[in-house]
From TrEMBL:
Organism this protein belongs to: Acanthoscelides obtectus
Domain BED-type positions: 3-54
Protein name, per record: BED-type domain-containing protein
Subcellular localization, as worded in the UniProt entry: Nucleus
Keyword Transcription regulation: yes
UniProt GO molecular function: DNA binding; zinc ion binding
Length: 312
């Protein structure tokens, strides 16, 4: 049998599926429809006092049921809202800024400037140490791949820096430049540098490294002259503004200056270095002494045991 929820069953007992007995008059009634309307009619016609109590009890029971349902609905809605807010906050906490976010763009710029100012390799930003640091410092920042910063530097930072340097050069009445060729062992390439020097109106020295290009062919004077002309054209430096080109004593550099019709002079420091080397090589006794010193230094540099004995 199902549990009896109506207050009417306070006054009746169920004998079987089709019959009930009144607790007040002990009379038995048939209940074919299995409803409670016949029971309420009996109570109303035969037991008016008890029927009034039943109505009060039934009204109170219905009111309590409605209130219970209302509270359950409110609690369920509140719990749902709380759960949604918590979920939203959790997602927002782990959601990275969009690339167009003001703070994200500022950090992109600072990282690019850091790479340029400290002459760092682009793969520095892919290092686990740097990525852990950025994640701890600002979890909302999405650290991009190296290709992004390479493109950002070339397409955004470089044009601005280029215009600023051109304005600095325009403020110089005359400029001289130094140039040299050297081989980079790590990259296995030869490089030609071009650095401009001048004094501005405030009588302050200005020194700007404008270009460093690779030389894949033989380092002939014609090739060097071609590269120098391209650099002057790229930076819009008129020839009448050139004072002199400082170079080493290489024949190719001298020929490049003649082809480009640029006044050139030898580098004083380079000339001094050549003089010192020549003087050392011309003295037989000093050369022998220098060779012995090199042997001693090489021995201790390659021997851990020798270093310990020397320190002792």
């Amino acid at each position: 049998m199902r549990p009896k929820c109506s207050a009417i069953w306070t006054y009746f007992n169920e004998v079987d599926d089709q019959t009930v007995r009144c607790n007040l008059c002990n009379q038995t009634y048939s209940r074919k429809g299995r409803g409670t309307s016949g029971l309420r009619s009996h109570l109303q016609s035969r037991h008016k006092t008890e029927y009034t109590e039943y109505e009060k009890c039934d009204a109170a029971s219905k009111k309590a049921e409605v209130e219970k349902k209302r509270k359950c609905t409110e609690e369920t809605s509140l719990q749902l809202v709380k759960r949604q807010v918590t979920l939203q906050e959790s997602l927002m906490k782990h959601q990275c800024w969009d690339s167009s976010h003001e703070k994200s763009r500022e950090l992109d710029k600072l990282i690019c400037e850091m790479i340029a100012l400290q002459d760092l390799p682009f793969n520095f930003i892919e290092g686990i140490g740097f990525r852990r640091f950025v994640q701890a410092a600002q979890p909302k920042y999405d650290l991009k791949k190296r290709q992004y910063y390479t493109s950002h530097l070339c397409n955004y930072v470089y044009p601005k820096l280029y215009e600023k340097i051109k304005n600095l050069i325009k403020d110089l009445e005359y400029v001289s430049f130094t140039t040299d060729i050297w081989t980079e062992p790590g990259a296995g390439v030869s490089l030609l540098s071009f650095t401009v020097h001048g004094i501005n109106d405030g009588f302050k020295r200005v020194s700007l490294l404008l270009k460093c290009v690779t030389l894949e062919e033989r380092h002939t004077g014609d090739l060097v002259a071609q590269k120098l002309d391209e650099i002057l054209e790229e930076w819009d430096i008129p020839r009448q503004k050139l004072h002199a080109m400082v170079r080493d004593g290489g024949s190719n550099m001298k020929r490049a200056a003649r082809i480009s019709q640029i006044d050139d002079i030898d580098c004083t420091l380079h000339q001094l270095q050549l003089c010192v080397r020549s003087a050392l090589a011309s003295n037989e006794h000093f050369s022998t002494l220098l060779a012995k010193c090199k042997q001693i230094a090489t021995h201790f540099n390659h021997s851990i045991t020798g270093q310990k004995e020397l320190n002792a």
